[in-house]
Amino acid sequence: MKIFVTGLRGFPDVPGGVERHCEELYPRIAAMGHEVVVAVRAPYQTYPEGQWKGVVFESIDSPTSTRFEAITHTCKAMFAARRHKPDIVHIHAIGPSLMVPVGRLLGMRVVSTHHGHDYNRDKWGGFAKRMLKLGERLGCKFSNRVIVISESIRDALARMYNCRRTTVIPNGVTVRPRLDSTTYLQSLGVEPGKYVLAVSRLVPEKGLHDLVAAFDKISGDIKLVIAGDSDHDSQYRRNLFRTAEENERLVMPGYVRGDDLAELYSHARLFVLPSYHEGLPIVALEAMSYGLPLLLSDIVPNKDVGLPERYYYPVGDVDALAQGIGRMLGEEHEEGAFEQMVREKYDWDLIARQTEQVYREVAGG
């Protein structure tokens, strides 16, 4: 089969949950013998070659405006897809799903993936929220099949739009061995086992302001490392970095990838995800794969991960978050407690096979 993919900025090493998802998924689909073409956004795709691990890139210009880049790029990608004559067009995320009817009108079979209710994010104004909800509705109505990353999203779509053409295929994670090296930690001035880790984009819905406020209530020589940045500059981002400059216990190295990120996961004492909005959090799955204890906000997507109740706290409650961090730091934890769960439920090879099965069913009519 030939599969044409759009709705993402690009990969490899382009930040974002959808981008991470596609970076893991499509080399595996290509390795199954399928031809995979991914439409990437020219301003973000810095990889110099035209293909990577069997995936062919088609670079398409797009604006870098947060409001218009996704829809403009996906619209152009639909007409580029028609030239390729694919068996399947796969559109990721509800904003780009505004273009699902266009793909169908052009005679193509379209699969869409719902990665989360993006209109709940604080960064969007009223018009943008309405367009995202419209994309969600059109994706449900016109896609040949909708892949959802969690049971809660499937239930929501059934309730809101009577959408029944859904298949649950979660995000995944690749289990990697812990690293013994500490070179990157030394460069940051942190010691193994003496820091709490968060990995996140620097946007309000990730709740990092709650985490910083809660950590101020934690005494001792332990530090807080927040690995991540934002796609666009904002007052929120500047405030976080300014706080880090004024507080030696807060370390903010920006985006971290590859072995440096693996080092951070390998030696952290605790992983915290204080989000107000998620899809199915890949960073939490990664932390589980490294055997870390976790503390997550109790929003539905985080609860979908399936951890025991003691690993959650009420979202937005800074005091409860501080108490949870203190409790988790004071306990002994079984190493690798969640690794088997990750291997059984969130394995990328299994996810690739499940996705391929959806393609075969849709392509077969």
Automatic annotation (TrEMBL):
Q: Which residues form the Glycosyltransferase subfamily 4-like N-terminal domain?
A: 15-174
Domain spans labelled Glycosyl transferase family: 191-334
Q: Which domain of life is it from?
A: Bacteria
SUPFAM superfamilies under this entry?
A: UDP-Glycosyltransferase/glycogen phosphorylase
One Pfam family named in its UniProt record: Glyco_transf_4
| Protein name as it appears in the record | Glycosyltransferase family 4 protein
Species of origin: Oceanidesulfovibrio marinus
Q: What's the source species' lineage?
A: Bacteria, Pseudomonadati, Thermodesulfobacteriota, Desulfovibrionia, Desulfovibrionales
